Amino acid sequence: MKHEIELNGQPVSVEAPADISLLHLLRDYLGLTGSKEGCGIGECGACSVILDGRLVNSCLTLAAQAGRRSVTTIEGIRGPDGVPNDLQQAFIEYGAVQCGYCTPGMVLAGEALLAHNPSPTRSEIREAISGNLCRCTGYQQIVDAILAAALRRKEV
Amino acid sequence: MERFQYVRAASIPDAIALLNEPGLVSRPLAGGTDLVLITRYEKVCDRVVDISLIPELHQITRSRDQVVIGAGATFSEVLENSIINETAPLLAQACRLVGGPQIRNMGTLGGNVANAAACADSIPALVCLDAVAAVITPAGRLEWPLSELIVRPNQTRLPKGGLLISFSYTVPPPGSRGEFMKLGRRNALAISRLTVAALGRIDSRGCIAEARLVPGSAAPQICRFPQTEAILVGETPSDKLCREAARQAVAEMTAITGRRWSSEFKEPALEAMVYRALCTVFNLCQAPDGRPQ
What we know:
Helix content of chain A: 25-40%
Oligomer: heterodimer
Order of helices and strands of chain B: EHEHEEEHHHHHHEEHEEEEEEHHH
Strand content of chain B: 15-25%
CATH architecture of the largest domain in chain A: Orthogonal Bundle
Distance between the termini of chain A: 45 Å
Helix content of chain B: 25-40%
Number of helices of chain B: 12
Structural class of chain B: alpha+beta
Radius of gyration of chain A: 15 Å
Shape of chain A: globular
Order of helices and strands of chain A: EEHEEEHHHH
Number of strands of chain B: 13
CATH architecture of the largest domain in chain B: 2-Layer Sandwich
């Protein structure tokens, strides 16, 4: 079937089977490999994308379900001229990236949180990333980075 | 080869027509958190009918003392909704404890009920509210008390070609207080080992006017525990009474399931959870260590 998606602000149209996941479509049909497959069953959050403003697991979303809807992947999160945006920059500064496998999902979880709650507490940040597993950092640096980005965005 | 086809329904009548199209086995697709996984290892249908974008299925409305929740409302939509938080905070609490943020943004109340897992978090809360499920079929509309719709784990009375459209409940009378507790291996993304939904009300004389108790992941069918409730109604709330009710809840669980491999864990855990939930519902100060013995 033809999949038509508004992907990172741009209309995209691609022919692909009806039964594949959104993650499969992104990685194997559109070449966007930023979204990762960790567990494949909705438990690790490495495949997180934002669908119509809500954070979802793209491994459990059918590609067809995203048809004529807006999808934001990690490729759509960037500053001017393609440099890291403020949240991504905070991840770098606070050592929130080690192996990097969870990072795209963590950044999207952070963006989804800040879009709805620009002044989160540490506890709200922990709750917002509770669907994303990180086996390297111990999470503290990720919480610090999201909190730092939130504070900086309020200053601007 | 594609394992199944996909079609999107625009409205409830459209979904019913698509689900009943001759020559095709169709299944409704809501959040997909269960169905998409099942389709990977099992041929369940020729076509999924996506019902997740039907606006009516997301509506949550109140008319006097009746609240109707569209079966397509996601856990996030329910837990953020002001009507639910005002009239049934225990349901909002149950939805808040489902999976993680992503799963709560995708999964729906209707999906939780149609899948009918014994460990589903929203079902004990809905049963505690005496919720009634409405189903549309080509022949018309059917209603079941939720506790009767689910026959046993993963099996419901939902007719083939029918679509679960809503859950309704009567707003508990003023002064009612509810509590929902979940025990899992960790806070997020954990399958419930046990849950407890409780609702109670104390009358003007200080006696318990109403008590409802629904343990989840405790028995094959998620239902109210009438003998435990009977111990409470008409009595003055006390620590001793809550302990007695907690012991009765364990006896009621064991009477349904018999002693199982998990009983050694579930019996003391359920006793403590029921005791704590009832202390909260009846505004009692619980023992410092929260242990009922």
